[in-house]
Amino acid sequence: MKDILNMVICGLGGQGILFMTRILAYTAMEQGLNVLGAETHGMAQRGGSVISHLRIGDVKSSLVRSGTADILLALDEKEGYRNLPFLSKGAKFFINGLPDRAPEPRVKDYLTKNSISYFTVPAHQMAMEMNAPMSSNLILLGLFSSKFQGLFGPDKMKATIKELSPERFYRTNISAFEKGTEYNP
């Protein structure tokens, strides 16, 4: 990992952005790293825009500046597009969307031009097939974990999910996370 890792997690209220952020932050803190975060909520409690900033390393502020994010995790495709300006050149973009449709052609051009790698997973569709509609966040985290080994490797993330999940959701959360790690577009 480089000295500072900047992440933006975005989506809509009710999709589990704050739980995802908690898992990522806790996983980094368990490895002795400094973590600062901030979140913004839209007008609606459910369905409004939610953006979470997470900075790992020797940082002084919690907000990720435009053009400096290494990672963008988007639980909503349109929210992901809206937050693309946060990404730095060479960053990674993880999208909850249909692989044959996301990202849109104009967005693909932008990503290519800026050397941004993207990974798309139909997390919502997979969660519905599991009969666990609130688990798309964990599926997206699973995909991220499988592509971003080391700091956020699957074993470390699973341990955090076990620690932070309410007991009644633990098995579903782990199952959803594993589906994401196994997903191969």
Tell me about this structure.
- The protein starts with a strand and ends with a helix.
- 39% of the residues lie in helices and 25% in strands.
- By secondary structure, it is an alpha/beta fold.
- The chain has one domain (4-182): Pyruvate-ferredoxin Oxidoreductase, domain 3, CATH 3.40.920.
- It has a six-stranded mixed sheet.
- It has helices at 17-30, 77-82, 105-113, 123-129, 136-147, 154-164, 170-182; strands at 4-12, 35-41, 49-57, 69-74, 87-96, 117-121.
- The chain is globular.
- The mean pLDDT is 92.
Short descriptors:
185 residues, alpha/beta, six-stranded mixed β-sheet, 7 helices, 6 strands, globular
Summary of the model, kept short:
By secondary structure, the protein is of the alpha/beta class. Helices cover 39% and strands 25% of the residues.
Uncertain regions: pLDDT < 50 for 5+ in a row?
A: none
The multimeric state of the shown protein is single chain
Please tell me the overall pLDDT: 92
Number of strands: 6
Tally the helices.
Answer: 7
> Roughly what fraction of the amino acids lie in strands?
15-25%
How is the main sheet built? 6 strands, mixed
Radius of gyration: 15 Å
Order of helices and strands: EHEEEHEHEHHHH
CATH superfamily: Pyruvate-ferredoxin oxidoreductase, PFOR, domain III
CATH architecture: 3-Layer(aba) Sandwich
Q: What strand line-up does the widest sheet have? A: 2-3-1-4-5-6
What is the 3D form?
A: globular
| Distance between the first and last residues' Cα | 25 Å
Counting structural domains, the number is 1
